Amino acid sequence: MLQAALAFPLQVQEGWEIGRTTPLPALAGTPAHLVLAGMGGSAIGGDLLAAVLGPRLRIPVAVVRDSSLPPYVNSRSVVVATSYSGETEETLAVAQQAVRTGATLVVVAGGGRLAELGSREGHVIRVPPAVAPRAALGYLMTPVLAAVERWGLTDGAAAEVEEAVRVLGEVVREAGPGVPTPENPAKRLAESLADRFPLVYAGSPAVEPAARRWKCQINENSKMLAAWNVFPELTHNETVGWGAPARVAALTAVVVLLAGDESAQDLRRIAATREVFSGRAGVVHEERGRGTTRLARLLSLVLLGDLTSIYLAYLRGIDPTPVDAIDAVKRRTRETA
Length: 337
Description:
alpha/beta; Rossmann fold; 5-stranded parallel β-sheet; 4-stranded parallel β-sheet; 13 helices; 9 strands; globular
């Protein structure tokens, strides 16, 4: 898992090339909707893409984490169904519905029944093997970004990917395993989060997918509970939760993720909220994304969180790769069907 995280810059670059060269369906015109469907580690790429593309895409983009498509999907929609294994039941169901509605179906998978369905009824972007879906993010995300640009729905993505790869390389050099803890931001974070309940706060909706990724990686890699929320929404509910008993609040560790381009109003709101939980939370950190584009900023925060979660696993003396609880739930669900 550690080697997969360190290879993230290369994955992003290779994923872009896969998406740039894989045959794609020709669209008759501008589609009415872009739907990105997936579950778990195969879905987070859709969240990141929606955050990157949403402000400039000329059509609505939706992320579906479910076994049903929105009722508005029709023959003018493009549905991208992503499952690293190609066997995710919910994503298979969504892809089958897309075929029935006449939508343009593009499958992103390493194989399995989903790839077979895509070969028969749509188009397939095949991704290389990785140790787990959550460790294949570069392969699952940037091919779709390349496809969206090839369809003429956005532009400038090649330069954004180039910057992201460069910035991710910087994160690897600064936070890799060979860098001692005093100079290593991910190791320092891991030490401060150990034995605490991490609360990951996105400074704005622009970095919300990064906060979700941190939470999920801490769950799966570190085998720890964690939660995430986003400004300004959390100022209308979660802020009040800091009235919890002091002994409970002291068990938390807050990490605020910032894009680096927040407005003055955003920063004032975050500072005011910090006054509420500072002195009550066990520790409080702020981490800023790097780069000039939203893609680079998001992915740099993602990689920092990935490495932190893996170092947390090391501190706990556990292997970050297995997800026995997920496997058990899937097995029991099949047995009781």
